[in-house]
Write a structure and sequence with these properties.
Layout lengths: L7 H5 L14 H16 L3 H11 L5 H24 L3 H10 L5 H13 L3 H12 L5 H18 L24 E4 L12 H20 L3 E8 L6 H25 L7 E7 L15 H8 L2 E7 L10 E2 L1
Parallel strand pairs: 2-3
Antiparallel strand pairs: 1-4, 2-4, 3-5
Helix pairs in contact: 2-3, 2-4, 3-4, 4-5, 4-6, 5-6, 6-7, 7-8, 9-10
Length: 315
């Protein structure tokens, strides 16, 4: 996991006085507790870490206490992961709740738990929040895919984007993600939005407006996708009509931010670009795969540097 180092500040200031003015610790005591905590971490001894935390709570610098709590979170995460791998969800939840601090891997595992139970809204919230906690590059790609997958399957953007346009993870308006999937729902075989679809489109529009305002060098393309039921030509036309519907809602909101409507273009990909299901995903039903394919995607590129994607229809 992520072993932390004792800061120079702690080494230089480990002999401290408490608020009452009484000398409470020597460098030897706190340094020993630091090393003992590291050993307990390697042995996954959570109870030992609890005991050490209580011993260093008052006499040692805050950095020592924080270090021990971070180690406790790592051990809780490891035990939760072991339980989850054995489908012991009660034990998984128990250990997740024992973590005293927030870490990306705790949130990612909460997302896995929710996904396994088909609670896609909760999974989307956890995965997207985990992305904002700087996970390592070797897991970031799959976490991005799972965040998008859970969001689309949730059928709503309420857990991912606030009405103001602020969001987490993929939907953080200060982010740098070039492609954002969104669960925009339409009436069956139509390009008219359902009530839920209109609410999600407004949130997506708020997010896009805020991001374009904060990053004026960008432009956006709205891409419509369908599942593979129906002919290729029909799906191409339907996906473009749906992209245009989203564009119309978005342009109205852009005017409120004085953002030029020319910064939004649309495309229709039809059934030609299925959603890239994560290798870490639980098994999906056929209907869930259809739902992933029936999505709207928003891509960002630099102004005047837009590369036209290979698509069945574009405008």
């Amino acid at each position: 996991m992520f072993q932390q180092q004792l800061s120079t500040f702690v080494l230089c200031n480990i002999l401290i006085l408490c608020s009452s003015g009484i000398a409470v610790a020597s460098s030897a005591f706190c340094t020993t507790q630091w090393q003992t905590a590291n050993q307990a971490r390697s042995q996954l001894n959570f109870q030992a870490l609890i005991n050490i935390r209580e011993q260093v709570r008052n006499p040692c610098p805050k950095e020592v206490f924080t270090h021990v709590e971070n180690l406790m979170t790592q051990v809780a995460g490891a035990k939760a992961q072991t339980a989850f791998a054995s489908n012991r969800f009660v034990d998984t939840n128990y250990w997740l709740n024992q973590a005293p601090t927030t870490a990306w891997y705790i949130l990612a595992l909460r997302g896995d738990m929710a996904a396994a139970q088909r609670n896609w809204t909760e999974a989307a919230l956890h995965y997207n929040t985990a992305l904002d906690l700087s996970p390592p590059q070797n897991v970031r790609k799959e976490l991005i895919t799972m965040a998008g997958q859970a969001t689309v399957l949730s059928g709503t953007l309420t857990a991912s984007i606030q009405r103001s346009g602020d969001g987490a993870g993929l939907y953080n308006s200060r982010g740098s993600y070039s492609s954002i999937p969104a669960p925009i729902l339409f009436d069956y075989d139509q390009a008219t939005l359902t009530a839920n679809g209109r609410a999600s489109t407004k949130r997506l529009a708020a997010y896009v407006s805020k991001r374009l305002q904060q990053q004026p060098q960008l432009q956006v393309t709205i891409i419509g996708h369908t599942d593979n039921r129906g002919s290729d030509a029909y799906n191409c036309a339907l996906s473009l009509r749906r992209a245009r519907t989203v564009q119309q809602v978005m342009v109205t909101m852009l005017r409120e931010y004085a953002i030029a409507a020319t910064r939004i273009t649309i495309q229709g990909q039809g059934e030609r670009v299925p959603f890239p299901v994560s290798s870490l995903s639980p098994p999906l039903t056929a209907e869930e795969r259809f739902a992933l394919d029936r999505r709207v995607e928003v891509t960002f590129s630099k102004l005047n540097n837009h590369q036209e994607a290979s698509s069945c229809t574009s405008n």
